[in-house]
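sry for the spam today, last one i promise. struct tokens for design, 376 residues
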């Protein structure tokens, strides 16, 4: 049986592949420590769990509004100056929002500029839409806006910016966002801003969002998520904020894909928005502490740019590679010898590095670095 050419050009999510692998190792009784999966080990907040249960008790188990529950969209719109419910579309995670965005803006051959290293799904999602990802290197993980400008061609449709960044933890300053906004205006491009980690910015650095730049709003498609901040990765609730014509196109697509996002999960998401910011502030402080702990540990082993946001380290492991070995080989060697799972940098378009998630309990972080130190 023949599969489509489209699906044959697409690779499965490289980070998601760790989930069954780690489960298998655990079943074999191996003392595995996973620093590979991009999710915090915190509990989902109890107000979210309670609201979801109450929603189930009320039998809110039916099809619902394809753009997302009006109550949720109203609450989200209220968080963005000048935004109405017609600008918000709720998706099964921001991953699905991004998929829908590329499907809605790319014609075959259209290019999307993506700074690298970058999250694993961007390029594959662009390809699934018939588009072409155009990778542009960063400098010490910060945007090289001149190189981005030089990469713009007549086929460019959009520039995709992810800050705080997965896998580097880089946070881009407002001036860099302003340069991208100018470029988008000059060349009539969309800006796609993936802000899945927007609250997790450390050291009191400003949380710059593209949404703050009014000059770019009519070409901005922004995605955010409940996954990381509220430890709700399995709920699958994220959203896009977009100009009404784009939002309408996203809903039209949604109407043929999943119809709506799980109704009771959206009630959980609404409860998350009703919570005061105290929990998020405490989690951010705890993650900053973990960032410091992990950065201190990693610095003794590999060169590493200090992350300013998200919950990842992206150290340069190239001095420890065996002859002909890639970061994939290194990660496999570390997993085999120590039971510690990290993600190879080549999966994010930058070999010679690995991604380490530090959103795990402190004792596991320390134990993982101890084992890596021993094997090196
Ligand atoms: C940069 C980035 N964007 C989007 C996502 C998708 O998250 P979700 O679909 O859970 O909202 C992730 C998840 O790891 C991510 O790291």
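last one done:
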């Amino acid at each position: 049986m023949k599969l489509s050419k489209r699906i044959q050009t697409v690779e499965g999510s490289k980070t998601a592949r760790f989930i069954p692998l780690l489960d298998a190792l655990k079943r074999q009784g191996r003392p595995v420590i996973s620093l590979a999966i991009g999710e915090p080990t915190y509990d989902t907040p109890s107000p979210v769990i309670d609201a979801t249960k109450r929603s189930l008790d009320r039998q809110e188990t039916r099809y619902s509004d394809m753009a997302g529950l009006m109550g949720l969209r109203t609450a989200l719109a209220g968080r963005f100056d000048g935004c109405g419910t017609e600008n918000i579309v709720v998706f099964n995670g921001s991953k699905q929002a991004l998929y829908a965005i590329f499907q809605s803006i790319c014609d075959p051959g259209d290019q999307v500029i993506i700074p690298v290293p970058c999250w694993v799904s961007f390029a594959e999602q662009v390809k699934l839409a018939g588009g072409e990802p155009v990778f542009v290197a960063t400098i010490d993980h910060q945007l090289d806006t001149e190189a981005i400008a030089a990469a713009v061609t007549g086929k460019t449709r959009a520039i995709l910016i992810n800050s705080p960044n997965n896998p580097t933890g880089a946070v881009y300053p407002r001036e860099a966002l302003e340069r991208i906004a100018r470029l988008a205006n000059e060349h009539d491009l969309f800006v796609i801003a993936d802000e899945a980690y927007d609250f997790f910015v450390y050291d009191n650095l400003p949380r710059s969002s593209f949404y703050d730049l009014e000059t770019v709003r009519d070409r901005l498609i922004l995605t955010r998520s409940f996954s990381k901040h509220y430890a709700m990765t399995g709920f699958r609730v994220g959203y896009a904020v977009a100009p009404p014509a784009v939002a309408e196109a996203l809903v039209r697509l949604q109407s043929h894909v999943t119809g709506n996002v799980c109704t009771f999960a959206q009630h959980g998401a609404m409860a998350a928005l009703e919570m005061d910011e105290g929990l998020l502030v405490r989690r951010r402080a705890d993650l900053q502490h973990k960032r410091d702990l992990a950065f201190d540990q990693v610095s003794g082993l590999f060169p590493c740019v200090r992350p300013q946001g998200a919950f990842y380290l992206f150290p340069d492991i190239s001095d420890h590679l065996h002859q002909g070995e890639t970061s994939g080989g290194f990660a496999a060697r570390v997993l085999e010898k120590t039971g510690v799972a990290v993600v190879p940098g080549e999966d994010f378009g930058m070999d010679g590095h690995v991604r380490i998630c530090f959103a795990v309990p402190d004792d596991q972080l320390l134990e993982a670095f101890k084992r890596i130190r021993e094997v090196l």
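The first strand starts at residue 33 and ends at 34. ok im logging off now
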